[in-house]
Amino acid sequence: MPKSESKPAVATKNVITDAAEVESLRSRNQHLEGELRQVREQLEWLKRQMFGNRSEKLPPQLPGTTSPDLFGNDVPASAPSTVTVPAHERKGAPKAGHGREAFPEGLPVEEILLDVSDEEKLCGGCGTELVRIGEDVREELHIVSPRFVVRRYVRPKYVCRVCTERGVTQVPPAIAVIDKGIPSVDLVTWVLLAKYLDHLPLHRVASQFKRWGVEIAESTMIGWIAAVFDLLGPIQRAMEHELRTCGCLHADETTLRVQRGDKDKNGRGRTSTGYLWAVLGRNLDGSPVGVSFHYAPGRHHAVAKELLEGVTGVVLTDGYPAYERLFENRPDVVHAACWAHARRKFMDALETGYREANEPLKLIAKLYEANGRICDLVDRMAKREAGLDRKLSQEAKDLLVVRLRCKHMAPVIDAIAAWNRAAKINALPKGSLGTAIGYLDNQMPRLRLCLEHARVDLDNNIIERAIRPIAVGRKNWMFAGSDEGAKRSALVISLVGTCKMLGIDPAEYLADVLLRVKIRHEGNLCHDLTPYQWAIAKR
Questions:
Q1: Roughly what angle, to the nearest 10 degrees, separates helices 483-502 and 185-196?
Q2: pTM
Q3: CB 227 within 8 A of CB 500
């Protein structure tokens, strides 16, 4: 009898064990499925980065759909409309892409006369001199190849044969940008712009020079750049002070490969990843002041502190914790976040198969659309006031922008936040959608600051555009030769990038300030030689 009673107990125990094992396997299966999906998302992301389209644009709005204007009225999307007009003749407009654009004004013109000989100017029938009745003209654009010229500076010496104690009379020597060096300031500027504006490696510049008749070693040009770095350093330091005090900053960073002295087992030089930290400043009216790059071997929090400690006003960054830690107890700093970064993460989720990510993308698009209409409205009001000889002050503009943003953008941001809270419940935390939701949730307090401060842009795109040329340079010269070389690159890229941003000819600017810094005593301030102040003085 005991044996017959023990059998059901054993069976029950086996059932319980099997049920627990099934639940464990089910849980493990769900975990593995989540990891598999995450790996697939990473693979798709890598494939898009290497072979896919980088555009983040949403599909265009369908014809017939509407979008509200600032006053709540539905405005139909731009679609072709049919209008009946009276019949008449109209001269056809030239097709796009056809015809030739006029040459820029101010180009020198070299006239080449193609005329018949004197004998052919006589009539072949009667011998009378032919009369000129007109001419045909064709213009072509020609380029004169660069050529090297040796400038020989001759300084005559004069002395009085009677008053020999008065010594020799002679003009001072011409200023040389590099002491006892062979390059003129224009040649040094050429090398700087070829490398840091046109992104040519120095071996290509040396190849060009050889074609033009002069051989200059790469090491020689590196020495020129090092000498210029010592001259331009005070200007960059003055520009950094200028940016810190302008009241509105954008900060970001990008990578740069830097070569190290040691080599691997195959004899190839090793490289490591360094960082170029970028800081861009804007005026009260939004116009740029300049951009400065700072090289550091790593992405440590101390670098952010060195660059941004002491700044006041608006600072717009991404979600890197170094910025958050630096400004968390700074009530004098409005630390705003970037909507473009949040949008980009939802775009990644959409492209990896999460169709639900389309909803926040549409809402963010409405946010940008509303902001664009607000900016257009404020600009039109400012022009109207100017036409009436009444200037709309910057303070009045800011108040108007904040009021319109609270009215038309706050509901959209609330809708985005509500969607994010609801979607967070079922999203896979480590998946691309879960990552986007978590990022938006963490950054939402700083993303809302655009509703309180007119100077807070929606995104950090202005500094990303300033960083973009560095990505082009990386594909050409690939890496910096050393930490010192990376610092020199950061300095020249700062000045050249600021010149481009302000519409200054970088060749004219560098040729001017290099000589002016050269004649200044060491330790003198160079606040008047920053590109921003230089442009003001030139007006």
A1: 90
A2: 0.79
A3: no
